Amino acid sequence: MAVFIFTALSTYAQKLPLITLPGSATFHFLSPEPIQYVDISSKAIVGDIPIHNVLRIKLVADSIKSKGIADSVDAIITIAGETFIAQYRVTAIPNPLNKEYPSQMEILPEHTKPLDIQSQGFSQHQLKSYATGLLFKKSETNIAQSSAFGIKGNINHIAAIGDYIFIDLSYTNNTNLKYDPDEIRFKVADEKVTKASTVQSIELKPEFILYTQHSFHKNYRNVFAFKKFSFPGHKVLKVELSEKQISGRVLPLKIKYKELLDADTL
Fold this sequence. Notes:
This protein has five helices and 19 strands. It is α+β, with helices and mostly antiparallel strands. β17 (about 235-245) and β18 (about 250-255) form a beta hairpin.
């Protein structure tokens, strides 16, 4: 039985894409989406994720010095993204003989197996694809508009797919001063607030933001994705753009619940 299991594992490992890791070199795996999980079967190899879609590995220094350990390194590396899992076989060469070896590999579709992510929602790559698609649709003008301090805001689209709501908004600066946004906040609050009432609001955090933009001179446009939410009819979704300066300009937009119910389907 032991011989059978060993033979089966060896056959499986041989079918995996092979990575040759020279003694002191560093190897990089390039993932098409953020890496969520990594497993390295050998302690002779260490790795880290310097940025969200890159796995970096190399041999442990003690393994390089000990030829016996380095010669025996034959590891399986498992990499899981948001929608896939991939495995690679890594062998070590402690003293390469004047030969160049690849230092990186892109995780290709043929290396991967899909994961069941229906309960987890869309991946960042999928959210980006849907959000980008909204930019090519003609803007609507009857959802929500507001203007103040020379700044005009408009909700271009509200769209839904699955458990997500996408809000496409834009701002136009009609002044000669550039606008430095502090943040754009989304809150569910009462539509009308009297001085005697206690203001209660719930802030919503986007699951995904298409662009990171620190300032704009004339035009700004972005798409925000949220997990599906609802609120009572007497409340509204307030979108508040605020400026960094002490006397900063603040521009609110109000989205009625009916506009969310009438959202387009992506």
